[in-house]
Each structure stands twice: as structure tokens, then as C-alpha cells.
Amino acid sequence: MKNDELVVVDGVSKKFCKDLKKSLWYGLNDIYKELKIDSSENNRLRDDEFWAVNNISFNLKRGECLGLIGCNGAGKSTLLKLLNGLIKPDQGRIEIRGRVCAMIELAAGFNPVLTGRENIFINGAMLGLSKKEIQDKFDAIVEFSEIGEFLDTPVASYSSGMKTRLGFSIAVQMEPDVLIVDEVLAVGDIGFNAKCFNRIREIYENTVIIFVSHSIPQIARVANKLCVLDKGNIVFYGQDIPKGINVYTSLFDKTKKSITGNGKATIDRIDVSVNGKSSVEFDYLDNVNIHIEVSIDKSKLNPVCCILILNHLMEVVAQCDSSFNKVKINNIGKKIDINILLPALNLNPGNYYMSVSIMDEARIEVLSQHFAAKLLSVKGCFVGMAPVQLNGEWSLN
Questions:
Q1: What is the pLDDT of residue 259?
Q2: Who's near 210: CB < 8 A, 6+ residues apart?
């Protein structure tokens, strides 16, 4: 049945200890209490303990893909290990029905001294398949992984990308009921990643997928549910992907701006306004105005102004440059007002940082740079696979 519940997570919590000696002592105590069937201390923290995940609950049915996102240290890896049975919860229960395949680490389940061929059979057996079932799928696994040339080479000599291709190929060709994918596609090349996402689409309807990634476009591409973790707690769970992504990117708002440069320019003011009103929050396709006041050493005759838009990972996703727009800034040593209109700004919904740089005409010297000077928040109901949505003129015949 396509709507049967395959994953049930009910009030799951897991705690760890920061101190190694105390951790070993607590572990012995916990084993003793388990033998006595006493879980009285499981619901409280002892000295130096913390909740890695705290009271997590969700249910997943066939055909659902849960995007699991959060900052580093949010509890994602711990939750995946709990789901995969590598560690057990201190509180709550986890029920998973059917065949589970987890790609939590690139080399997980691989014996490095054995060949790719041998590891295919070992991994298949670990998933509960008979030798005949593995043989029936063997050619499809090899073809998908694109490592036929190295099939009889020890896995220890494989690159991380080759291990990823082999691991993912085994996972998806085994047609699991529950597929857990943890950031492993980040090391693959573009062509293979596209191939992986196409394969995920093929098994989508009959599988529960739990997909962990720091890539918002990847999450938007495959997830129909989103879970955002922060310090072990769920801060968002639901099917409203844009809203969940806004919650996720807001977790990075603590980034502090920095001012650098050789001191031959001073950025005195940076203002952002939308439709004539000062605001750093705006809707998708709003007209955004940027006003900059800058003083530049008069020895720098034709300086360049560059505005960068960065995502939560501090990756540049867009820029607006005075030289590219053929704007000449005539500097005579007086304060300069720079006004830039960004019409119909088509950034994906989410939070972004804006940086402003003043450079010399040759773009060698950075006269002044305000990094992450403003936090911009874009609102909207559509989250695409890329940071920028192109407005096309469409026609149908």
C-alpha cells in the first residue's frame, strides 16, 4: 500500500556527555539500570550531559520525502544514527517497517581490502537479499555506478566520489522501503548527481526518503516535508517548504558584519528600502533600492562599487557591479551618494547577506568592504532549485 506508515518517531531523545570519564561511568550505570529495568534517570541530565536530540516526533508514509536540515551540531547525524539503529534512544520509541538502506557515511559498510564486486554482494546481504537477488540486480548496480573499469579493484583505492557512486547505486537498486541519504551527494559530480535525483524520483512513490543536505536547492527539489532542527529540538515541521526554509536561514542571523580594506575609502552609510520605505524585508519581485554614502581618497579617480548577495553559507549568489553596468564613479574627494535600483529582484525566498565593496579602478585594491552589512529577508511562496528565478516570456502553440 502506498499510504502505509513506514517510519514512526515518538518522543525520541538522546543525551551525551562532554566529559569522557563521566561518560564511561554513566554508561556503566545505565547498563546496570537497564538490567534492573529502571529508566528513572533517563529523563534528566547529569553533570556535563546535554540533549543531542530532544523529544523528536514525526511519522512518514510511502511517497513522502522528509528534508532534514539544521546548523552544524543541530542533532541531524544523531537522529539518523537513531533511525538506523546504530545507537538507541534514552527516551521514546522508533518504529521502522520494511527494508532500510542508510547512506550516512561514504565508506559505511564497505570493506576496504575487498573489491567493488565483493562489496556489492556483502552490502546486498546486509540488506537481507539472497545471492540470486543480488546477481539479478548486479548489472544494473554496476551500470548506474559507472565504475565498471574498477570493479575488481580494492575499494581502498577508490576516490570519495567513486565510493559515493557505488554506495548510492547499491542503495537505490536494492529498492529499499526506507532510504536515508546524509549529505553524501555533495561530493559527486554534476552529471552523477542529476542521475541520482532522477533515480530518487523513480523510487519516490514506493519509498520513504529521509534526505539530509545543507543545499537548499536540493532540499526544495526532492522534499515534500521539512524538519528543521536547532540544538536538538524541532523548530519547524510540516509541508510548507518555503516557511521552513525561512526558519532555517533565520538561524544564521547571528553572523556579525566585518569591515576591511586599506582605509582609502570609508562607507559611511548603507540603507535598503522597498517601494520607498526603509526595510530589509521584501517580497519576491519587489523593487529594492540601495543607498550608499561613501568617502574615497581623491587619488583613486575612478573607483568601482560592487554589491554582493550571499546565502546562509556565505556563498555569493548574485552581484551588482558599477563597472559591469557601465557606471563611472567620478571621485573628486567629496562624499559620494550612490543609489542603486534592483528592479523586480528575483531571489528565492529566504535570508541573504549583502556586502558592499569599494575598489580601485583596476579592481586590485579593496579600499573598503562591509561584509554581511545587511541581512535581507525575501518572502514568497515558491522555492526553486536555484537562488535566482528567471522571468521568461512564455508562449504555447
A1: 92
A2: 7, 60, 65, 66, 68, 80, 83, 178, 179, 180, 181
- The total of other beta-carbon atoms located within 10 Å of residue 215's CB is 16
388 in helix, strand or coil?
strand
Q: Where are the domains of the chain?
A: 5-9+55-250, 258-379
pTM of the model as a whole: 0.73
Does 5-9+55-250 match 258-379 in CATH topology? no
The answer to whether the Cα torsion of 264, 269, 275, 276 is positive or negative is negative
Contact 292, 342 (CB under 8 A): no
Please check the confidence at residue 109 and state whether its pLDDT lies above 90. Answer: no
Whole-number Å distance between alpha carbons of 286 and 111: 54
Band of the pLDDT at 1, cuts 50, 70, 90? Answer: very low
CA angle 189–191–194, rounded 5-degree value: 105
Q: What is the DSSP letter of 198?
A: H
Q: Max Cα separation, the chain?
A: 83
- Mean pLDDT calculated for residue range 124-135: 84
- Is the CATH number 3.40.50.300 carried by domain 5-9+55-250? yes
How many alpha carbons lie under 13 Å from residue 111 in its C-beta half-sphere?
A: 11
The class level of CATH for 258-379 reads mainly beta
